[in-house]
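Contributing new records

If you add data, match the layout below exactly. Sequence lines come first and carry their own label; structure lines follow with theirs. Keep one chain per record. Anything else will be rejected by the validation script.
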Amino acid sequence: MSNPILPDGPDGMPWDGPLLMFHDLVDHAPLFAFIDGMLVEYQRFEKFVTPVDRLTRRGHLVLVSGPDGVGKSSFVQWCARKLERHPEIANPLVFYFGLAALPPECVNFRKTAAWLLRQMALVLEGKEGMTREDIDKLLREADDPYVAFGGLVDVLHDKSAVALIILPQKIPLEWVRGFRDMARARMVFFAEWGAADRVELAAGFGEVPTCYSAFLQLSQMAGVEADIREILTNRVAGMDEAERKLVAEALRNFPVPREAIDELVYLFDIRGSGKMTPSKVRAYQDDLTKRLLKALERKPPQGRKER
């Protein structure tokens, strides 16, 4: 299954990335949800958009921070996919600009916002239920993005739609703040930023009455991508959903990436070439208990030093 949000790369395959190494993000992600606190941040996102009807009352900004290679782009798409497939969102409209190369005229926020809106209008032309009048309403005031995005609100309301807008990766943080200030009901902006503390980011953005903002932070995935690739290529291939669930449950108690990956290797070594079964998971758990007991035996009693 290809990612419905991310366009295909120049070779016809999905664009690569730490999370997009999964052929099916929904199926494989639980195996690696422990990495970098990703599961915790994803749960924070789910809480942020719950109940989902809050999207119809205010705008929303989701800003994901973290160092290069940590999986920000993939995580943003994961969150957008969650909303795109939500049963209570009748008409989700996805606008993916994550890898978009901005044209030379995008020298400031207003020109970038105007360009973005024109591209959104082109996408909407192919959407069922959109009329020429709807498109013209957006383009009429495109040079004044604050007015034009106000027109987008009207279109979204008329169509009972929610716009999921993934902003270009390389825009300045001040421009992200500008889109946040323009966000209104039925608009969800997704953006990413480099290594930065989410608390500091939130303080720098402040609050506005028209938009809820969530600041999510990924941090520890960098440096383990090669290990994940090896596991996916040589270990996970061919596993069915039941097997993946067994593996995910077995790894639940290992939140540190290096430890979790080492334990995955132990578990797959015990599995061998056959299917992953409950009995093999129990054998792994027995092996884990023995290893932990040995580690305790080597550890000197508290308050006493080894000679």
